[in-house]
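Appendix B, example 12.
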Amino acid sequence: MKSLYLITLTIVWLILPPSLLAIPEHPRLLVTADDWKNLPSRMEGDPRVKKIISATIARADVTFEKPLLQYKREGRRILSVSRDAIERVLDLSTAWKVTGEKKYLIRCRDEMLAISNFKDWNPDHHLDTAEMQTALAIGYDWLFHDLSKTDQKTISTALRDKGLKSTLANRHLAKRKNNWNQVCMGGLVMSAIAIMNEEPGLSNEALELAKAGIPNGLRGGYPVNGAYAEGGGYWSYGTIYTILTIEALRNVQMPFEAYRAHPGFLQSAEFIQQVQGTSGLLFNYGDNAPKNLEFSTALTWMAKQNQSQSLNQFIAPTFDQLDASTHERFLALAAFWVSHTAEAKEKTLALHFLGSGYSPIAIHRTGFESKDLFLGIKAGMANVNHGHMDAGSFVIDWAGERWASDLGVQKYHDLESVGIDLFKMTQDSGRWSVFRLNNFSHNTLTYNGKLHRIEGKSEILSSKSTPQHETIVNLAAVLDLPKNATATRRFILNSDQRTMTITDSLSGLKPKDEITWNLYTPATPTPTDNGFLLSIKKSKMQLDLTSPQSIQRLASPADPPPNAHDVTNPGITRIHLNATADSEGKIQISAIFKTAR
């Protein structure tokens, strides 16, 4: 029997093509005339809404200190220009709607005309095009009645030729299973709805392509437990565009529920809460940076949709951060998506989380406060979008600090400018010469000094929270071991003793094969009989690192990195152990992290 979800997808656009459905008048994209009319009372009744609008207007004021947007490439991208376009159009048009001061309208119109007259929107890197479409579609719709006929024509023509036609000429994007699908299909839907009256046939064609393509991005991005495939940092990027798609369709009475109800989509908000360590830093596997939680329009929407009290509490501190310097280009939209307190339901988050999909993870913790232990574990494979050779790696938080670190991503443009093809996913790709992307920079194992196998997949064999927090990961396929050799990494978090134990067991190796154990830490290490005493500020953690096949433990600065193209890692120490297989081809390594009570 088919699931309700699959049945819904088969009828998602009903019988009539979108171009034949009654299309509401402008403004119809994301925010309606009634929404604008009700905004002042919402600002008066909810300080969070007022903070959002105040920060939005403050940012709009800063725009006047800058020149109009210009076509400026950074390597192969104009993506930063496209993102600035979204922020400026949303900020300026909102400021005009709220204050009635015409300077905001004039500047927003000028920005949109400048964008419209760009030679193109860089379709070869189509994220740039999709985000530019989004900016111009919103501005065209929201300001439609304030624009002259000539300006309307200029902007709608650009949306048609540089937006819809450009994306329709790149139909392969609908088959992508990552954020490219979500962003490009989102931009397509926004443009189609914005100029539906002017280009009904083309808009219908665009919406039909989006209908076929959107499920691919959802299936690739969201397993049933919500563990977004590209990690917590990229979650906001892909997810906000799916949200834009849902809200755009909702406002013009086109079917959207199948996308909202996709298994794992709404649940991904809990995933974001879970991957936030007790240090305040994100568990930043893959191409993600170890950032603190920032204001997120996507999370604001999710809190309302999930009616989640825990999510409301999670994001509450970020409202206090809002000002003219806030980096969230969709900020203005959050004012319309803030949930009412009465709508929220209490939900207790578990101390154990298991995420599946392309990038499986496990998380164990003793709580959600800075004093609590947090252990994030990564499995999976490198050959995934934004993947690193980080299978078997882990991060540890305690006492408000990160003790076992993931160094994070290096800027794409810096690497591409010296000829490294970052997105060629082959074993010998230049991508894996980048220190921060390969296994040599992660808290994992290395076999005979070799790179991990990008097609090898590390599986989480088991993960549970009772009677103790335990996860077992199979690393054999990733390490490229001899045939029939085995390699497992067992993690145990003991809440009572406040210890974390990592046990590596390998067998079937050749005698004298070598396994390297790595830890990257911002802590200062002091040697002890069995390892190191790690210190950060006034907190201390004992690391006992032992192996029957090794007697030497080393600690050294992570800098300088191996290659000229590698970014430095200031303040980071590498602790490692080299173990040589015994005559039976076995290696055992034990690492015990002990915290003070």
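Residues 130 and 214 are 14 Å apart (CA to CA). Residues 5-16 have pLDDT under 50 and may be disordered.
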